[in-house]
TrEMBL record:
PROSITE patterns: ZF_CHHC_U11_48K (PS51800)
Domain CHHC U11-48K-type per the UniProt entry, residue ranges: 6-33
Keyword Zinc annotated: yes
Species whose genome carries this gene: Drosophila guanche (Fruit fly)
Pfam families: zf-U11-48K
Protein name, per record: CHHC U11-48K-type domain-containing protein
Molecular functions (GO terms): zinc ion binding
Keywords: Metal-binding, Zinc, Zinc-finger
Coiled-coil regions listed in the entry: none
Amino acid sequence: MSNYSFGTCPYNKEHRIMLFRMPGHIVKCMKNYRGPPLQTCKYNAIHRVLDMEEHLKECEDYHKFTENNSFQMALSVRAQPIIYDEDAV
Ligand SMILES: [Zn+2]
Ligand SMILES: [Zn+2]
């Protein structure tokens, strides 16, 4: 049973939390947190960071999101019928 992934609590680096428990833990830990306010990552609510711009450079979920987006865009571009106006050529 050691297949769980652990993450580090953003509010206390000494907390090692099973990832599936992280959202609940964060809510509790946030209440005891006395440091500078952390921002919540738009792409993964368990990411709480001081500097969002720095975080997004290394945020896996953000990168997945942008990759997906450009992938979808590529698909939809390809899916669009290209209509040539033959008379105009
Ligand atoms: Zn914690
Ligand atoms: Zn993130």
